[in-house]
Amino acid sequence: MISSQRKIANGDVIIVYERHDTMKAIKVSEGSELQNRFGVFKHGDWIGKTYGSKVLSNKGGFIYLLAPTPELWTLVLSHRTQILYIADISFVVSFLEVVPGCVLLESGTGSGSLTTSLARAVSPTGHVYTFDFHEQRAASAR
């Protein structure tokens, strides 16, 4: 689990919250920038900030830098496969009695929506093994 007190580092994947209906996953890369209707946001300015920070653009617009929790990850995923949402994921975790230390095998990684929640449920000592026959989907989920 990513602590909200941990500082963002170069190479981290974060969730950029632009508005209530616009979020995206971005890999922080020194020298890169995000451009949107609120202005230009330099990735280098994000490094060293804590998750949850509000950052300003060159035009005075702002975004929030959020930790990629399973709940947020599900919302920002490209829906190239059918995904489970939090209510269904909670049911699956409860029904299967998934607890820390469990070892799980998932067939069909898909978008990774369920996978990330399973990983949090078995942490810190468990493990989730997942497989997807579709190489491009597997690479994207990785």
> Termini distance?
17 Å
Count the beta strands. Answer: 8
Low-confidence stretches: none
Range of strand content: 25-35%
SS content category: alpha+beta
Residue share in helices? 25-40%
Structure description:
The model has no long low-confidence stretch (mean pLDDT 87). The radius of gyration is 17 Å and the shape is elongated. It is α+β, with helices and mostly antiparallel strands and 142 residues long. It folds into 2 domains: 13-66, Roll (Vcp-like ATPase, Chain A, domain 2), CATH 3.10.330.20; 75-141, Rossmann fold (3-Layer(aba) Sandwich). Helix 4 (113-122) links the parallel strand 7 and strand 8. It has 5 helices and 8 strands, in the order E-E-E-E-H-E-E-H-H-E-H-E-H. The chain has helices at 43-46, 70-76, 86-95, 113-122, 135-141; strands at residues 13-19, 22-27, 33-36, 39-42, 53-56, 62-66, 103-107, 127-131. Helix 2 runs antiparallel to helix 4 (113-122). The strands form 3 sheets. A 4-stranded antiparallel beta sheet has the order 2-1-6-5, covered by helices on one side. One of its GO terms (molecular function) is tRNA (adenine(58)-N1)-methyltransferase activity. One of its GO terms (cellular component) is tRNA (m1A) methyltransferase complex. Its EC number is 2.1.1.220. This is tRNA (adenine(58)-N(1))-methyltransferase.
At a glance:
This protein has 5 helices and 8 strands, in the order ββββαββααβαβα. By secondary structure, it is α+β, with helices and mostly antiparallel strands.
